């Protein structure tokens, strides 16, 4: 089968999904060890400016990055560069300074303490490191409001200082 015919069929399908509203936009790329073999984009950016989407447009991946990071992390485990039970503070020192939120005092100040055990790669990959989203955790939301720390979705480094809501591994 001619690859260009297959690519054109794929482009018609993807563009049709964007036109129908089933997808807001789409990009596709294929590569081999020799380099890039295919590139396609269709739709408009979703940042309110309605510029045509290109294969170079920076887009928000949000939770989809978890799969990419998990695969990369497990490749490092496979290569012996990291262990699943490695203390992540050895890799990202800020993770060794994270506190656990026990509550708030009468004045509204956070009561925190060091975690009983270090955060590990295994816990980060299995979502048992103790982190939470303020969207679903009112205590974390109160902490962020009190100390004017932005939401994790703003992708700011200061969010690494947010306290854990649970003990690592629990």
Commentary on this structure:
It is built from four helices and four strands, in the order αββαββαα. It is α+β, with helices and mostly antiparallel strands and 170 residues long. The chain has a two-stranded antiparallel ribbon with strand order 1-2. It has a two-stranded antiparallel sheet with strand order 3-4. A hairpin with a 5-residue loop joins β3 and β4. The N and C termini lie far apart (53 Å).
Short overview:
The protein has 170 residues and is α+β, with helices and mostly antiparallel strands. It is built from four helices and four strands; from the N terminus they run αββαββαα. Helices cover 28% and strands 16% of the residues.
Defining key terms:
single chain, 170 residues, alpha+beta, two-stranded antiparallel sheet, 28% helix
Return residue spans where pLDDT drops below 50 for at least 5 consecutive residues.
none
- How many strands appear in the DSSP assignment? 4
Query: How large a portion of the residues is in β-strands, by DSSP E?
Result: 15-25%
- Helix percentage: 25-40%
What is the succession of H and E elements? HEEHEEHH
List the helices and strands and how they pair.
Blueprint: H1 3-20, E1 25-32, E2 35-43, H2 65-79, E3 99-104, E4 110-114, H3 121-125, H4 138-147
Antiparallel strand pairs: 1-2, 3-4
């Amino acid at each position: 089968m001619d690859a260009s015919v297959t690519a054109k069929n794929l482009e018609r399908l993807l563009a049709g999904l964007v036109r129908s509203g089933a997808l807001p936009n789409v990009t596709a790329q294929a590569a081999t060890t020799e380099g890039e073999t295919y590139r396609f984009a269709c739709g408009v950016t979703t940042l309110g400016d309605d510029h045509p989407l290109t294969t170079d447009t920076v887009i928000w991946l949000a939770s989809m990055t978890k799969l990419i990071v998990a695969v990369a992390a497990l490749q490092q485990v496979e290569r012996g560069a990291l262990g699943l039970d490695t203390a992540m503070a050895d890799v990202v020192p800020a993770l060794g300074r994270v506190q656990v939120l026990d509550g708030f005092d009468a004045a509204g100040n956070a009561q925190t303490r060091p975690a009983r055990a270090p955060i590990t790669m295994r816990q980060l990959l299995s979502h048992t490191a103790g982190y939470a989203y303020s969207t679903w955790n009112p205590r974390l939301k109160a902490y962020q409001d009190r100390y004017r720390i932005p939401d994790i979705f703003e992708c700011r480094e200061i969010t690494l200082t947010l306290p854990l809501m649970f003990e690592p591994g629990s």
